[in-house]
Amino acid sequence: MDWSINTLPLPEYVELGVHSLSGLLWTLLFLFLWHCYRIGSDLPIPGHAGKLKSSSRRSMISRSGVCMGTKCSARSKLSRSDQIAPFISMETAKDEEQGQGYLTPVLSHALFPAQASAEAKKLYAALQEYAKRYSWVGMGRIHKGLREQTQVRLNDLSTIQKPHLFFLPDVPSVPFFPRDAHRHDIEVLEANYPAILAEFQAVYQRGTDSKSGWTCLGPKSQAVFPLYSAGVCVAGNCRSCPSTYRTLLSLRTFINSNSLGSAGFWLLGPGAILGSSYGPTNTRLRCHLGLQTPPSCELVVGGEPQCWSEGHCLLLDDSFLHTISHKGPPESGPRVILSVDLWHPNVAAAERQALDYMFTPDL
C-alpha cells in the first residue's frame, strides 16, 4: 500500500510575517523594561542591608510607621516629607562591635549624637553638603569617624594614637613609615636638598623675627618659616624660596588644599624639648627632610626613637604620641628640617576630595 505525506492529517499553520515578528520583539522589549523598573524600584528592608524585596512605596511607608519606644519618639520629630521618604537604619551596637558599621549606608534619618562637640557637628554638616553636591560613594569611613568623635576610647589618656581633630577609622598605621609609602615624593625632596638648604640659609641669615617671615613658637629658638600654613600659601615666603616652592608643587601627595596640610622650615635650638603631643589627624603623614641635624637630636614617635639625617627624609604619623628634643650644647647650632604634610597612603582619592571640602582653609 502506498503512503504519501499529503495523506497525513497536519494542523493548520500560520506564516509569521514581518509585522508579527516585530510585534513579538516589541513585546519582549516591553517585558524587559518592566523587569528593570521593578528591580530598580526595590527598596532595602531596614535591618537587612543587602537583601532586596519587591514592594511598593506604600508598603515601605507602612513598615516605617511601626516603631517602639525611643525609636518612635525620635522619628516623630521628623518632618512629614522625611517620614514619607524611604530610609535605611543606621548601624547597631552589634554592627559596631563586629567592625562593620562603616559599611552601613549613610543616607539615614538617624540623628547625629547630641553629645557631639560643636566641631564634630560642623564637620558632619560639611560632609552632608559635600554629599549633596557630589556623592555619598566612598564616604563610609568618614561618616563613621564623625559619629565616633564622642566615643570614650578617643578620650582615653592611655591611647598611644589620639588625633585631637579628626580620626579616620580602619586606617592601618605605624609610627614610622618606610620610604616605599611615598617613594616618588621622598626622592624629589632628597634630589632638591642642595637648593632647599641654600634657600633656608639665605632666609635664616636675614634674621628670625616676624618681619622676616618667621613665626616664633616659644623660647630656645623654636621658630617656623611657613611656606604653606593650614593649606594656605604664604606668598611672601614662597617668593623668597622659589626652588623649594616649585619642589612642593611637584609632589604628588602634598596636602595644599585643606587646613590639615602645612609645609615650612622648622627650627629647634639647643636645649629645647617639645613635650608629648598628638597631631590633628591620622589622615596625613609628616615628612621631615633633614637640613641641619646636630648630634643629640632625637624624635620619639609612639615609643620608637629616630634621628634625623642631613639630606634624607623621615616619614612619620604624628597622630601618635611624639616628643622632640635637642640636647646638644649651645655651640652645636639649631636643628633645621623642612616639614611637609603628605596624604596617608591608605586614604582613598574620594576621601581626600571630601576632606579637602570639609577642611577648606580659612582665607
UniProtKB/TrEMBL annotation:
The keyword Oxidoreductase applies. The chain crosses the membrane at residues 16-34. The keyword Transmembrane helix applies. GO terms for molecular function: dioxygenase activity. Signal peptide: none annotated. One of its GO terms (cellular component) is membrane. Belongs to the aspartyl/asparaginyl beta-hydroxylase family. This is Aspartate beta-hydroxylase domain containing 2. It comes from Poecilia formosa (Amazon molly).
